[in-house]
Amino acid sequence: MSKLSLQNAILTYEQLETTPSKKDNIPEELEDELRRLGCDFIQSAGIVLRLPQVAMATAQVLFQRFFYVASLKKFSVRDIGMGALFLASKVSESPCKIRDLINVYNYLIRRYRNEPNEPLEYLGQVFYEMKDALVIAEMQILKKLGFNVHVQLPYGLMVNYLKVLELTDHETIPQKAWGYLNDSLRTNVYVCYQPATIACAVIWLAARIAQVKLPTSPPWWELFEAELEDMENISRHIMRLYAIRLPSNLPLSLDELEDYLKNYEDRRKSGINEINEINDNKDDLGPAPMVTM
Amino acid sequence: MENQGYSPVECIDDNNLEKNNTPEVQLTETPKTKTKKSKWESESDNDSESEQRFSKKRRKKIQDSEVDEHSQPETTESIRRLKVSNEDPFNQSPSTRSISPIAEPINDMSISSTPSPTPESTTQSFEERIIKSTPTPLPPMLTGCRSVDNYEKLNRIEEGAYGVVFRARDKATGEVVALKKLKLDKEKNGFPITSLREVHTLLLAKHPNIVNVREIVVGETLTQIFIVMDFIEHDLKSLMEDMQVPFLQSEVKTIMLQLLSAVAMLHDNWIIHRDLKTSNLLLNNRGQIKVADFGLARKYGSPLGPMTELVVTLWYRAPELLLGTKKYSTAVDMWSVGCIFGELVNKEPLLPGRTEIDQLTKIFKLLGMPNEKIWPGFSKLPHAKNIPFIKQSHNTLRSRFPYLTENGFDLIAKLLTYDPSKRITAEEALKHPYFTESPLPKDPEMFPTWPSKGGGERRKSYTSPSAPNVAHGVEKLDEEDQTLLGSIFENQGGNDYGFRLKI
């Protein structure tokens, strides 16, 4: 009896290089930031909603995939983020309520904007607008991804690999590798590599940072059919996350994006200044504190 | 992220160097413990402060000495390790050795583009632990749904509880397909989770006896979603309604084997179908059974989580579901398979209850009243106290199947076992002697054909000249003759009856 699997879609080089947003004249740098921001929101919202990590992981992969077939100018980070998390919660058999999800997003957006927290008006107009946007976003994700919404995740594989490498009892490696997996969701590695390679890469990286030597003759990763070059690449993507901080004024809705793009260069400069200020602020919604799971 | 200017490989070497002063000593030390975990780790966990103070010159010297060593012809494990460590990209770029800002390791990684070390021959002990994986097929492309306009609607086949099924033709290839339209109009919670499960399980469950889903297409509005499946001519329920005699034993066996094989595969992949019944079993004109309608299917896990007990069409619903259990498993499908088996043999539903109470009463009358002895845990089920007690202590199943062989009866009795934990599994049922005794299962290719209702074909009279149909046009045959008929086209292990035409 053969084991079945639904393999993850892997992008062609062309799809990766010429994203729909790029064709819509959105700067590459901004697209990267918006992707990360969207994933940040999904991960945080999932934690607040007490969803399993599988749901957040699936949602982030769906979010990343979606913006390789649709443009950020047509779909907002907020709506697709909500839609992806809602859909992923159902896919991972832990459905959340639309109302809860909208309230959490409202809270997170206000926090990101440094606005005082104010709950949405019950049955108010804003709520209904967000609800409609969420339902439409969910359908759009399904449609644009051809219903390929079942994502293979590397968590289980990684645990098995750790077992084979006899690393499960190590003090830091399993936790670190797990954290890297969570963080790697904010990058595009899930649309470039199969889960096995990603699982190897995070172990490789975690072992490297913990300064633990793994068998190199033969190289252990070859047994899991990973390539050194791919693992290095994935590690680079992950490490880059920690080097760059997100500005706090990124656009979340389509209107905001339009404004943002109007004087992109000016905003860029002010944004950079802002980053420097924010770096001292521990309460900001940057990537590092959000990985605690 | 912390600075990670040193590769772990390098650190081990450094530490050993400090202790032993010469790399040669390390050569003799490492092989002894090479498989132990402790040796994979560096001896001092993080003494990076002092290491970082190492001068470049010193490091250069170490590297040189390593190069010298592995230029020797020896091929000990440790040399290979050193060799690899030398090839390690981190060691090659000198900038890794400086205390670098956060971003720098990334740059270092990008510089290093050395090929991965070549695999070594003596890899047995390590590789043994990993199951060789089969070459993976090419990953799918990321493409959106096509439009329903790629298909031309022919006729409506049926309207199910939550969707309409159309027959349609693929405009590009001319193939006839079935389009199942999902009902989404009244959904308050976005895309229904049941449809997600259906799509998922159909994609997961690629099996010759499970209906093949081709793609999902969308209509003009977002609420028009169609699942495109292969068009299958018949469903077993309406087919049996039109047949005058039951399926032959050989045909029943073929159908059951195919059904069990599909169910075994689903269960093996942690999927419960939860709505097996004759109207969800499709039969094509090549004698192949296709399990369809995964609208209630879902994945289950271990340990079992609570699931709704309101599943499975009443007639095929297992007693534990009727008694309100929320933690059930694949055994509910096996009960349905038992009901289907009985229906195939007798050409009438085995337990056609009108209400849930009536359904339970019918089960109890057929199989006797369950008790704690034959079904431990029975009295603790939620509805166990609210059910009517039936004075029926013994099992009357045999009288319902007078013509079934001992093996056949044994199989249905095992499928209709009260205690879900004792009920036969699909895997076990496939090996049941019923399938290896005479009459043997009929080759699917030898199955009779019928006009397709869904295809809009008119049913002809049973006296049509096509040979296989004749078997079903005859008045009820006795068991022996069915055996013969089933065997006409088969080679039953030397027991050759020759060609007999029975009209």
Automatic annotation (TrEMBL), chain A:
PANTHER family: CYCLIN (PTHR10026). It comes from the Eukaryota. Residues 254-281 form a coiled coil. Keywords: Coiled coil, Cyclin. Gene3D superfamilies: Cyclin-like (1.10.472.10). InterPro entries: Cyclin-like_dom, Cyclin-like_sf, Cyclin/Ssn8, Cyclin_N. It comes from Rhizophagus irregularis (strain DAOM 181602 / DAOM 197198 / MUCL 43194). Belongs to the cyclin family. Residues 40-143, 156-240 form the Cyclin-like domain. This is Cyclin-L1. One of its GO terms (biological process) is regulation of transcription by RNA polymerase II. One of its GO terms (molecular function) is cyclin-dependent protein serine/threonine kinase regulator activity. The keyword rRNA-binding does not apply. The keyword Coiled coil applies.
From TrEMBL, chain B:
It catalyses: L-threonyl-[protein] + ATP = O-phospho-L-threonyl-[protein] + ADP + H(+); L-seryl-[protein] + ATP = O-phospho-L-seryl-[protein] + ADP + H(+). GO terms for cellular component: nucleus. It comes from the Eukaryota. One of its GO terms (biological process) is regulation of mitotic cell cycle. Residues 151-435 form the Protein kinase domain. Coiled coil: none annotated. It is an enzyme of class 2 (transferase). Keywords: ATP-binding, Kinase, Nucleotide-binding, Serine/threonine-protein kinase, Transferase. Its EC number is 2.7.11.22. CDD domains: STKc_CDC2L1. InterPro entries: CDK, CDK11/PITSLRE_STKc, Kinase-like_dom_sf, Prot_kinase_dom, Ser/Thr_kinase_AS. GO terms for molecular function: ATP binding; cyclin-dependent protein serine/threonine kinase activity. Residues 1-124, 443-475 are annotated as: Disordered. Residues 62-86 have a biased composition (Basic and acidic residues). Pfam families: Pkinase (PF00069). PANTHER family: CELL DIVISION PROTEIN KINASE, CYCLIN-DEPENDENT KINASE 11A-RELATED. Belongs to the protein kinase superfamily. CMGC Ser/Thr protein kinase family. CDC2/CDKX subfamily. This is cyclin-dependent kinase.
